[in-house]
Fold this sequence. Notes:
Blueprint: E1 6-13, H1 19-35, E2 39-47, E3 51-58, H2 61-72, H3 75-80, E4 85-91
Antiparallel strand pairs: 1-3, 1-4, 2-3
Amino acid sequence: xxxxxxxxxxxxxxxxxxxxxxxxxxxxxxxxxxxxxxxxxxxxxxxxxxxxxxxxxxxxxxxxxxxxxxxxxxxxxxxxxxxxxxxxxxxx
Length: 92
C-alpha cells in the first residue's frame, strides 16, 4: 500500500500588535521546515496585513507528524501561540 502525501492549506491570522514579531520569526521557521526530511513544499505568504496563507506538502504522515512535533517545540510556536488558524489537512 502506497503512503499518501499530507497537505496542509489555509491561513493563520495575526493581530496588528504581534505582526512585527511574527514577520521577524517567519524566515527561520520556513528555513527550518524546508530542511526537515519529507518536506516537499512549505510556503507561507502574507496577504492583507496579517493573514498568512500556508501551503505545505509532506511525503507521508510520519514526516508531517515530525514537522508538527518540531514546530510545537520551536520559537515559532511561542511567537504565534494563540493566533487563530484556519487549516485544512488532507491526504493527496
